[in-house]
Amino acid sequence: NADMKFGKIKDENNKKQELTDSNYSIYIKSSNRKVRKRAFNEMFKTYESLINTYAALLSGTVEVNNESARLRNYNSALEASLYNDDIDAQLYDKLIEDVHKGLPFLFKYYKLKKKVLGVDELHIYDLYAEMVKSSDKKYEYEDAKKIIRNALSVFGDEYISVIDKAFNENWIDVFENKGKKSGAYSWGSYTTAPYILTNYSYDYNGVSTLAHELGHSVHSYFSNKNNPYHMSSYPIFLAEIASTVNEVLLNKYMYEHSDKKDEKLFFLNNLLETIRTTLYRQTMFAEFEKITHEKEKNNEVLTSEVLNDIYYDLNKKYFSNAYVDENIKYEWARIPHFYTSFYVYKYATGISVALSIVSDILNNKPHALDNYLLFLKSGGSNYPLEILKKCGIDIVNDDTIEKALQVFDDTLEDFKRSRK
Fold first, then answer.
1. What residues form DSSP beta bridges with 173?
2. Are the beta carbons of 249 and 152 closer than 8 angstroms?
3. What is the pLDDT of residues 230-279, one digit of tens each?
4. Per-residue pLDDT at 2
5. Three-state secondary structure call for residue 239
6. What tens digit of pLDDT does each residue of 285-325 get?
7. Which of 80, 265, 273, 385 could form a disulfide with 132 if both were Cys (CB 3.0 to 4.6 A apart)?
């Protein structure tokens, strides 16, 4: 990664700019289609030049996972990875199967995107282009605090009192500063506050990121306060639920309190992209991991050609009504999560659960709020699926994932109506 160079591309002003792994995410969203295409081709041209090295690295990881599982008498590397959370591989398979059933919703989204962007053919490099111009509305930090407090008020006084502690007791390192780490995260210890580092930007993303990190911090606060030390740390399987619940609630609050058509469309599109990239895309990654491990276990050598073909075929399945550019077959080499195998599916299950919790609370389902607070206070006191049942969610046997996919389709229909 340190040695890779991605060359230069011409930006929207026709000026040459060096392409990096970081600014790629900016250029692939450009409103200028030529810029998107240049960034896409230049990025994956570099990965193509190193694809045999990446194949050796990933196939080695897969081989180690499979051999470790075999030596420990697991049926598969997947089963071994799920063991600590007491999760059956049935859930992993169910996620993939349910998302396959929900692919027609995704195809409908791409059909609309093609129409909105006004292109003859929707390419892979068009997928991140915004259907609605990003809101240029600025939110001062004090305004962001009020918005978040109002959006999360549905949780009641006990939850909001912790939000107030975060704001008033200096839990948050808010603004960008010289030498400060980039990004955002929530961290602390059993005996400290769950401190937040963020680099607040004065746009909606800055507000949403703050709400997200507060979700983590309140979860940690309740877990630490209500459990002995050895039971206080909640597992990764549950970690992104509380943060995503906050993001979704904020999105819905902003939508409901906006009186401008473009703003409403922006928030609907924001939710669509969140579900697309977290539920659909991460499940595609999860399926890639399952296939690669099964092939290696069956003594198939994972050459670059084999890995490219698996990934390209999956893209054709998940983007069947878009033009699947050949260079996308190298994208697997760019995904660092594949070296922490069978991790990404937790993003997909996490957002599915979060959407279900938000729906239950906003629809005043009996005991939904009390059950959610109980979930936040449970920490690591039981296996994750048992803790989820406190929210009335049995994700292995119920329709939580299917309902999340239906939220995507309902939001898409709302977007189409709001455009008229």
1. 197
2. yes
3. 999 999 999 999 999 999 999 999 999 998 899 999 999 999 999 999 99
4. 76
5. helix
6. 999 999 999 999 999 999 999 999 999 999 999 998 789 99
7. 265
What tokens does 127 get?
Answer: 């997928």
CB-CB contact of 279 with 408 (8 Å): yes
**First CA to last CA across the chain, in angstroms?**
46
Q: For residue 344, count other CB atoms closer than 10 A to its CB.
A: 21
Q: Which two tokens stand for residue 28?
A: 């692939």
**Pairwise CA distance, residues 288 & 281, whole Å:** 11
CA distance 41 to 72: 43
> What stretches of 72-156 show up as alpha helix (H) in DSSP?
77-82, 89-101, 103-117, 141-151
129/119 Cα distance (integer angstroms)? 12
Of 213, 155, 166, nearest to 375 by C-alpha is 155
Token output for 80 = 């071994």
Q: Which residue has the tokens 């591309």?
A: 9
List, by residue number, the catalytic residues. 213
pLDDT given at position 287: 98
pLDDT digits (tens, 9 = 90+) for 68-94: 999 999 999 999 999 999 999 999 999
Task: Provide the b/e sequence for 51-80 (b: ≥16 CB within 10 Å).
Answer: beebbeebbebbbebbeebeeeebebbbbb
CB 243 within 8 A of CB 208: no
Assign 3-class secondary structure to 220-238.
Answer: HHHHHHHCCHHHCCCCHHH
Sole residue written with tokens 């469309």: 265
CB–CB of 213/206 below 8 Å?
Answer: no
Q: Pairing relation of β-strands 195-197 and 172-173?
A: parallel
Predicted pLDDT at 177: 87
Q: How far apart are CA 178 and CA 97, in angstroms?
A: 47
**At residue 215, what is the residue type?**
G
- Among candidate residues 292, 214, 290, the one with its CA nearest the CA of residue 247: 214
Tokens linked to 134: 């990003």
Residues 257, 139: Cα–Cα separation, whole Å: 15
For residue 172 the two structure tokens come to: 């948050």
Residues 19-26: contacts with CB under 8 Å, at least 24 apart: 19/43, 21/334, 25/128
Q: Checking DSSP bridges between strand 16-18 and strand 8-10, what pairing results, if any?
A: antiparallel
